[in-house]
Amino acid sequence: MDFVVTPWEVKGKVDYDKLLQQFGARPLTSDQISLLNKYAGEVHPLIRRGFFYAHRDFDEILKWHAQGRPWALYTGRGPSGPVHIGHMVPWILLKWFSDKFGLEVYFQMTDDEKFYDDPELSLRDTTRWAYENALDVIALGFEPDRLHLIVDTLDIKPLYPIAVKVAKKLTWNTVKATFGFTDSSNIGLIFYPSLQIAVAFLPTELRGETTPVLIPCAIDQDPYFRLARDIADGLGYPKPATLYSKFIMALTGESKMSASNPESAIYTVDEPKAVKRKIMNAFTGGRPTAEEQRKLGGNPDICPVFHYHMLLDPDDASVEKIRQDCRSGALLCGECKLRLYEKIERFLKEHKERREKAKDRVDEYRLSVKL
Ligand code: SF4
């Protein structure tokens, strides 16, 4: 395999079809997308355009919904630094599901995991990042009755009894084979999967009735939920369903943005000047000269600038026009980048205002404060 994908590492050029085979998840089919259309009345562009491309039991949870039974949403974030647009994209879909189906969202901030994993970060750092990152989630417009934040080290109480039951079902051999732990992995990291899996079962415990979750997240999180599904029956919980996205391309052209290179991503707290610089310096699928581009056209398929247009522009016709104008050579990269800058800056301006307003409200959203 010429690429590696684990929850902690993405290396090489990812082949998303091969990855599905490796993980054993399924591609999202047009039948399943039609089912979503039937119940939601529309299909979100991130699904329509193939960015969310794979799943486990997505159709089953929609059928469960059709029977009028309860379900919930679950996703999370490893808080080790500021949030970039790539992190926000799946959360935008999460909010859409919550609004369309009237669902509660369980959002785990894994400050413990990031502390275990990164020798450079103190626990104080990761918990502070959890607070900072929570502002970005709240800024998407959630109300406290719909969004339940769980910062692992602060809100462990409702989670811990479930994690204990999960931990008893997972052997060292299983987690070693699933996550690639070695003899020098710290035992915090080895226990940690129990906590990430526990949230999948939390809504059932809290409601006192079977409440499966749908987990929209990036494909690298599949190993956790594969295990969750394996042990769910034995613990009397419903299997979680999942919806997997590809990674957001780095502005530098790699498969995934990297926290170690701030120029590869646009952060929600970036000033307009920095946003513009990053976009104008981005890798493209363009030709070396304007003349060649006019003659031969560019390649949007490998272009992160196009990728961002595709992720952030709700208008299908506008995205299609960029694709065609790029291919025909009618659109040059400079102009295309400026248009993207304008779109992102508009989004970020509003986001920053909402983020500022969220600053005194984080506790209203924390599950353990509400219980
Ligand atoms: Fe990318 Fe736009 Fe240039 Fe095409 S015109 S290669 S989409 S930046």
What is the CATH homologous superfamily assignment of the largest domain?
HUPs
Alpha-carbon distance between the termini?
A: 46 Å
The count of strands amounts to 9
Q: What number is the mean pLDDT?
A: 94
In brief, what are we looking at here?
The chain has 18 helices and 9 strands. It has helices at residues 16-23, 30-40, 45-48, 58-66, 85-101, 111-117, 123-138, 160-169, 172-179, 187-207, 222-235, 272-280, 290-296, 304-312, 316-328, 333-357, 362-365, 367-370, and strands at residues 4-6, 9-11, 26-27, 52-56, 72-77, 105-109, 147-151, 213-218, 241-245.
Describe the secondary-structure layout:
Layout: E1 4-6, E2 9-11, H1 16-23, E3 26-27, H2 30-40, H3 45-48, E4 52-56, H4 58-66, E5 72-77, H5 85-101, E6 105-109, H6 111-117, H7 123-138, E7 147-151, H8 160-169, H9 172-179, H10 187-207, E8 213-218, H11 222-235, E9 241-245, H12 272-280, H13 290-296, H14 304-312, H15 316-328, H16 333-357, H17 362-365, H18 367-370
Parallel strand pairs: 5-6, 5-8, 6-7, 8-9
Antiparallel strand pairs: 1-2, 3-4, 4-9
